[in-house]
Amino acid sequence: MANVKEKYKKEFEERARALVSQMTLEEKVSQIINKASEIEHLGIKEYDWWNEALHGVARAGVATMFPQAIALGATFDTELVERVGDVISTEARAKFNASQRVKDYKGYKGLTFWSPNINIFRDPRWGRGHETYGEDPYLTSKIGVAFINGLQGYDEKYLKSAGCAKHFAVHSGPEGIRSSFNARVSQRDLWETYLPAFEACVKEAQVEGVMGAYNRTNDEPCCGSPTLLKGILRDKWGFDGYVTSDCEAIRYFHEYHKVTKEPMESVKLAVENTCDLNCGCMYQHAVNAVKSGLLEEKYIDECCVRLFTTRMKLGEFDESTPWDNIPYSVVACPEHRALALECAKKSIVLLKNNGALPLDKKKIKSIGVIGPNADSRAALQGNYHGIASRYVTALEGVQDYCEKEGIRVYYSQGCDLIKPTTEWYDNDRLDEVREICKECDVVIGVFGLDESLEGEEMPGGLGMQGDKPTLSFPGIQNQIMKEISENAKKSILVSMTGSAMDLSWQDEEFDAIIQGWYPGERGGEAIAKAIFGEFSFEGKLPITFYKSLEDLPEFTNYEMKDRTYRYMTREPLYPFGFGLSYNSYKISAELDVLELTDKGINVTVEVENKGKLQGSEVVQAYVKAHSKDAPVMSLRAFKRVELMPGEAKKITLHLGKRDFALYNENGELTLNEGEYTVFVGNGQGTQRATQLTKNAPASFTVACKETEIL
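Below the sequence we write its predicted C-alpha cells.
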C-alpha cells in the first residue's frame, strides 16, 4: 500500500505548520493558487501544482504513452496497472530531477499529478468517459487503487509522486453545461455508484489529492460542498490530504451556478469547506476577504498547512529522496515501451469472430487496410497525453508484420473522420476502397473517433462540446464500412474509440470486430499481432455497448435506473465484462459455505486453458441481491489468470459481507436478510452474456439470516 507512515505525516505537518506561521497573509494566499509563488526568505521555490499523468506523463514532452485509461480498465489487471503507475512516477521523477537541476519550475514540471479520473462512465455520450476506467464502481475502485499505489510508491517516508482522485463527485457530463449544471442524485445512487471508487482511493490507496468537480451535486457546488468535502471526505473518510478545485471552478460559483454573488463570497465558500488549492486565480481575492472580515485567516492557514505537508512528503524541503538519482535515460526506455505494448495486448477486445480470425499468413497474399484511423497517431493517444518517442499505427503494425511474410499491403484513408471529403470532392476515396476490396484476400477497416471528437469541453467536433449526440460513427464512415462489408472477401472491423458505439449492423455484416480503444504508442503493433494470432485476445469490456440510445434515459438524468449493466433491463449488444478469445477456457467453481457469516465466503475456482495459445482469462464473480430496487447484479471480485496451453490453475476469490450489502435510501450500507445468487465465470450471469461466450457461469444460492447496517 502506498503509505507514508503516520510518524512522518505528523512530522511533516508540524514542519509545515511552523513554516506557514512565518508567512504574511499575502504570502500565504500566494501559495493556495496552482501557480504558487517563490518566497525567497523562507527557502520556498516557485511550484506549479498542475501536472497530468492519465496514461503516461502528459504535456511535458516525450514520455512512454500507455493505452488510454478506458483501455487500462479493459485489462481487468490490477498488477499490470500498478506497474504502469510505477513507470509513470519513475519517468516523472526523471523529468523532475532534470528540471530542478536547471531551476525550471514552470507548468507540468512538478510531482503532483491530477490523475486518475475515477468518475463512473454512466452514459456513452460523455466525451470524457475514455479518461475513466469504465462504468463499474468495483472495477474502477480496484484499478484506481492499483494506479495510485504505483504512482505514489512504497517508501515509508516520502511519496514518489502524488496522485489525485478526480472529479469529486457525481460528474460524468454533459460537458457543455458542466459549469452550471446541478446533478441531482438519490442517496442510494450517490453511495452505491458515484462514491465507492473515491472511498477506496482515500482509504485503501491513501491518495494524496482529491479534485472537486465543476458541477453542483444536489444544489451544492462540488468544490465548495460542505456535504462532499467536509461531511464525507474529511469527517467520514478521514481524508487528510489536499483538495484542489478543477480549473476555474471557483469562479463558476458566482458566474454560472449563482450560489454566491461575487468573488470573495466564492472564495469563502470554497476555503471554509477545505478546498485548499484554486486552479485559477479566484483565491487572489482571499486577501481582501480576510481584511474585510468576511473570511477568517485561520482557514487560509489550514489550506497552506495541508499543501506544504504534501510538498514535504514529496521531499521538496529535504536534502535527498530515494529517487534523486533516477536518470533521464529511463524516459521512454525499451523496458517501458515494452510495458506499453503489453498493456495494449491485454486491453484490445474481440467482440465478434465467425472464424475469420486469426488470419493465416500462409494463405494470404494481399491485405487491405482502410479507414480514417488506420494511419492516425491521434487514434493511438486519447486525451491528456504526452508525446511518444515512436508511434505504431494500425497500418504500420500490419505493414511491419506483413513485410516480413511477403504479404502485399494496400492502404486507403477511405474517408475523413467527420468531413465528407479527404481532399476536395465528396466521398473521393470510394473508387479506391472498391478496388482494394477487389484486390485483397482480406480487408481490415479501421474507423472510429479521436480526442478531437470526444473529449473535454471543446468547440467543433460533433457539436456537443466533446460529447456525442449519437452512438453512430460520424461523417460517411458507415458508408465506407458498408462498402467493405459488402465487397471484401473477408472483412475485419477495428473500432478505435474511447466509448461504446452503435455496432448493431456491423455485428451482422463483418466477419470479425475488434474494439481497439486508444491503445497507446504501440497499439498498432498489438492489433496486427492479435489479428495474425501471435497471441490471443484478452481484453474485457469495462462498459456496456448498447443497441441504441433509446435504451438510455436522458443524458442530464443522473439516476442510475436503466444505466450500465447493473441497472439496465434491456438486452445489450455487448455486455460489460465480455470479450472473446482464440482459446477456450474451462472454469469450475465451488463455495466453501452457502450461508453468509462474518468470515465471508471463499470461492475456489479452477481455470483450464483448452486452447493452443498461451493466454489469460479473467475470472469474474457477480452477486445478485433478490430485493426491491437492487442492481441486476454487481461485480464483486475478479482475477486475471495466466495459463499455458493445457495448463490448469486454482485461485481463490473472497466475498465478504460488504460484497452482499447495498446502500439504502438513507445512504446506509445494509446487508439484508434473504437469498443472494453468486455467479462465477468469464462473464455476467445474463442470457446475452452466455449467448455470446457460449459459456454459462456457475451459480450458487447464498443465504443471509439477518439484516444489519454495516
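The chain has 21 helices and 24 strands.
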